[in-house]
Amino acid sequence: MIPTYNGNPEYIRETLESVLVQDPGPEHMQIRLVDNGSTRHDYRKLVEDIGGGRIEYHRHPETVTYLENFNSCIDQARGTLMHLLHDDDSVEPGFYQAIKEAYESHPEVGYIFTRHRFMDEASRVQNLSPLEAETSGIIENWLDRIAVQQCVYYASVVAPREVYVREGKFNPRFIAAGDDWEMWVRLAAKYPVYFITEPLANVRIHSGSMSRSLFQNGTLISESRKAIEIFTPHLPADSRRAL
């Protein structure tokens, strides 16, 4: 599920092509661009040009909040697992196969995530995210670690859709950021989490990215504080204050 709002067509093309190159077929994977009432480009035509009918397209008649759009992706998803892939990020060949194998071996997980690369405007790799474990598998003491620092990006995460539905979707109290951190902590408090050591996702950092502007204007700090306030009750009572 790929949410967009006036996204860069070239970035969207790269995003979609990174999925299509490892497409196992419509009987195994749904691919949908969820357009939040964009006004700049004809994304329906873009989807048709790239996917030739393989990619679904949904456009909200009116623009909603970004989290309402994210949560609508959960509502529209039909699969057992759901990947919420931002319209300027991408995945590497083997991403979905690795996720599938991890889930088949540990269907009890709250989510699965891979190591990821940070890339720039020109898709050049700048650096790698930390190696959270030496080998792929269930991470020990993950709640203690994710509660202290947000280090998981949407592009690298896949969760069972039923987990999102059962535990509640993304919290609408957030206006710009923090929603992902709160979700990853909330789920880690109730489920084991699986980490894949290979860097199979790409997160784009560029001048027009929302995360960069939020950092520059201070909103990221206030939203992070909000996330901490919301997820703190989910932490173990005996370690809550220390965390």
Detail the topology: elements first, then pairings.
Layout: E1 2-4, H1 9-20, E2 32-35, H2 43-51, E3 56-59, H3 66-76, E4 81-83, E5 90-91, H4 95-105, E6 111-119, E7 125-128, E8 137-138, H5 142-146, E9 157-160, H6 161-167, H7 179-188, E10 193-204, H8 210-217, H9 219-231
Parallel strand pairs: 1-2, 2-3, 6-10
Antiparallel strand pairs: 4-9, 5-10, 6-7, 6-9, 8-10
Structure, described:
There is one protein chain. This protein is 35% helix and 19% strand. The radius of gyration is 17 Å and the shape is globular. Helix 1 runs parallel beside helix 2 and helix 7 runs parallel beside helix 9. With 243 residues, the chain is an alpha/beta fold.
Bin the strand percentage.
15-25%
Secondary structure: number of strands? 10
Largest sheet: 7 strands, mixed
The gyration radius over C-alpha positions equals 17 Å
Oligomer: single chain
Please tell me what the overall shape is: globular
Distance between the termini: 33 Å
Q: Mean pLDDT, nearest integer?
A: 95
Helix content: 25-40%
- SSE order: EHEHEHEEHEEEHEHHEHH
Low confidence ranges: none
Number of helices: 9
> What class, by secondary structure content?
alpha/beta
Q: How would you summarize what this structure contains?
A:
By secondary structure, this protein is α/β, with parallel strands linked by helices.
